[in-house]
Design goal:
With 184 residues, the chain is α/β, with parallel strands linked by helices. It has 4 helices and 7 strands; from the N terminus they run H-E-H-H-E-E-E-E-H-E-E. 36% of the residues lie in helices and 22% in strands. Helix 2 packs antiparallel against helix 3.
Length: 184
């Protein structure tokens, strides 16, 4: 039988499964304007730069003859599936997004979405975090998702408030020492 009609391995087909939605069911996909723009920029980069380059490589490799052992062709097709999958995911996330501009927050004395919060834990260690959308959370930059336990505990708190955070080691008390909202 020709190799054209034989599935080479199952993993090639499993990759096309959709990426699960990271948002909890029934919860809106809140995002800051900066986060929304970052998703748009990534989608634009994939659509206008990355995908056309890979398509060019795949078409060149396809013209070289036997595709079954052509690494450029096989890798290129796999990369195209990854790019298309990511583009579908980004489109769905952008469509479901509700942009919340922290600068429009009228009450800047309380912790809301987009706030940068400084808090002290029980050991008097201060930490600063920024509460952002699920798609833009990056712990290395101190940006946490608004659905995380610490963010949920801090929401609506004011400077001086002590809130209890549920952690893997048990409940922990933290005191809010600073609240700010970014400026453009």
């Amino acid at each position: 039988m020709s190799k054209a009609f034989v599935k080479e391995n199952d993993s090639d087909f499993e990759e096309e499964d959709e990426i699960p939605d990271p948002s909890p069911k029934g919860v809106k996909n809140y995002i800051t304007p900066r986060g929304f723009k970052a998703l748009q920029d990534e989608l634009k980069h994939l659509r206008r730069e990355e995908r056309p380059k890979v398509v060019e490589i795949v078409s060149w490799a396809a013209g070289n003859g036997d595709r079954s052992e052509n690494g450029d062709y096989i890798y290129g097709k796999k990369r195209l599936r990854e790019i298309d999958r990511r583009m579908r995911f980004l489109l769905k996330r952008l469509e479901a997004s509700e942009i919340v501009d922290p600068l429009q927050q009228p009450n800047k004395d309380q912790v809301f979405f987009g706030a940068t919060v400084t808090y002290a834990d029980e050991d008097d260690r201060e930490r600063t975090i920024r509460i952002v959308g699920i798609d833009e959370a990056d712990l290395d930059r101190g940006e946490i998702s608004w659905v995380s336990p610490i963010a949920r505990a801090l929401l609506r708190a004011e400077i001086g408030d002590v809130v209890e955070v549920r952690t893997p080691r048990g409940p922990q008390s933290v005191e809010v020492t600073g609240i700010s909202y970014e400026t453009r």
